[in-house]
Structure to design on (306 residues):
C-alpha cells in the first residue's frame, strides 16, 4: 500500500515538473520569437528612417543649390543687362551728337528721303530736329523733298535724341524716323548685335 | 497507514505539484514580460541610432550643398569678372556697330 502510494506521489510530482519544464520552454521559445520579431521590426524601422533621411537630404541639397544657382543666374543676367544698357546709353549719346560729325548731312538727308518715301505723298510735311544742328546744315534737306513738300525745322531734338517725322498734309499717314523710333524698331537686332560683339567668342 | 492518511498524502502531493506548475507559470510570465521590455529597448535603441544617422546624413548633405553653393559663387564671380573685362575691351566696337546699325539699317 505505502509503496504504491509513494509511486503515485512520485508520478504526480514528476508530471508537475514535466509540465513546469514545458511551460518554461514554451515561454523561452516565445521570448526568442519576441526578440527576433523586435529585432526585425527595429531593423525595418531604422531602414525606413535612413531611407527617408536620404530623400530628405537630397531635397535639402537641391533646395540650397537651386536657390543659389537661381540667385547667381540672376546676378549674371543683371550684369549682362547692365553692360548692354550702358552700351545703349553710349549709343544714344553718340546718336544725339551726330550733328557735330561729318556724317550728319548725309544721314539726315537719308532719314528725310526714307520718311518721304514712306508717307507716299506729293506734299509731305517733314519735321526735322537734331541737337546742335544749325539752320545751315539743315537747309540742304529741302533738296530731297518733292516740290510740294514742306520742311519744318525744330530747334530741339525730336523724341529726345533727334530725327525726322514725315506726314501727309492731312496728318493721316505718319512715319517716325527719329533715332528713338529706329532704336525701338531695331531693338532685337541691336541687342543681338551688342551681345554677340561683347560676349561671344 | 490508514486510508485517510493515504488520501491526505495524495492531497499534499497534489498541492506541491500545483505549486511547481504555478511557479513555472509565474516564471514563464516573468520571462515573457522581461523579454517584451528588452524588445522595446532594442527598438528604442535602434530608432535612436537611426535618428542619429539621420541627423548625420542631413548635416553632411547641408554641408556638401553649402560647399557646392560657395563653388557656384566663385564661378559666378569669375564669369562676372570675365564679362566686365570683355565689356571694357569690346565696348567701343559694340557702340560703333550699334550706331552703324541704327544709322544705316
Amino acid at each position: 500500500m505505502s509503496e504504491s502510494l509513494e509511486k503515485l506521489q512520485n508520478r504526480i510530482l514528476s508530471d508537475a515538473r514535466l509540465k513546469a519544464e514545458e511551460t518554461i520552454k514554451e515561454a523561452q521559445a516565445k521570448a526568442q520569437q519576441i526578440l527576433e520579431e523586435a529585432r526585425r521590426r527595429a531593423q525595418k524601422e531604422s531602414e525606413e528612417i535612413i531611407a527617408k533621411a536620404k530623400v530628405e537630404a537630397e531635397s535639402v541639397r537641391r533646395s540650397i543649390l537651386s536657390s543659389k544657382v537661381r540667385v547667381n543666374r540672376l546676378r549674371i543676367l543683371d550684369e549682362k543687362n547692365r553692360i548692354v544698357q550702358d552700351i545703349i546709353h553710349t549709343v544714344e549719346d553718340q546718336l544725339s551728337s551726330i550733328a557735330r560729325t561729318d556724317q550728319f548731312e548725309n544721314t539726315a538727308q537719308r532719314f528725310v528721303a526714307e520718311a518721304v518715301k514712306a508717307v507716299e505723298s506729293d506734299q509731305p510735311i517733314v519735321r526735322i530736329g537734331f541737337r546742335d544742328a544749325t539752320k545751315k546744315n539743315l537747309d540742304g534737306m529741302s533738296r530731297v523733298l518733292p516740290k510740294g513738300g514742306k520742311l519744318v525745322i525744330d530747334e530741339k531734338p525730336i523724341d529726345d535724341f533727334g530725327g525726322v517725322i514725315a506726314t501727309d498734309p492731312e496728318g493721316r499717314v505718319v512715319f517716325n524716323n527719329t533715332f528713338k523710333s529706329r532704336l525701338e524698331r531695331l531693338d532685337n537686332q541691336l541687342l543681338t548685335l551688342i551681345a554677340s560683339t561683347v560676349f561671344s567668342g | 497507514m490508514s486510508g485517510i492518511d493515504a488520501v491526505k498524502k495524495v492531497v499534499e502531493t497534489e498541492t506541491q505539484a500545483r505549486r511547481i506548475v504555478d511557479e513555472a507559470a509565474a516564471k514563464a510570465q516573468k520571462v515573457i514580460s522581461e523579454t517584451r521590455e528588452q524588445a522595446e529597448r532594442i527598438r528604442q535603441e535602434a530608432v535612436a541610432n537611426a535618428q542619429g544617422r539621420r541627423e548625420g546624413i542631413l548635416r553632411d548633405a547641408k554641408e556638401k550643398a553649402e560647399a557646392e553653393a560657395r563653388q557656384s559663387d566663385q564661378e559666378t564671380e569669375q564669369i562676372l569678372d570675365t564679362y566686365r573685362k570683355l565689356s571694357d575691351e569690346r565696348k567701343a566696337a559694340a557702340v560703333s556697330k550699334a550706331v552703324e546699325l541704327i544709322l544705316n539699317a
Observations:
- The CA atoms of residues 110 and 197 of chain A lie 27 Å apart.
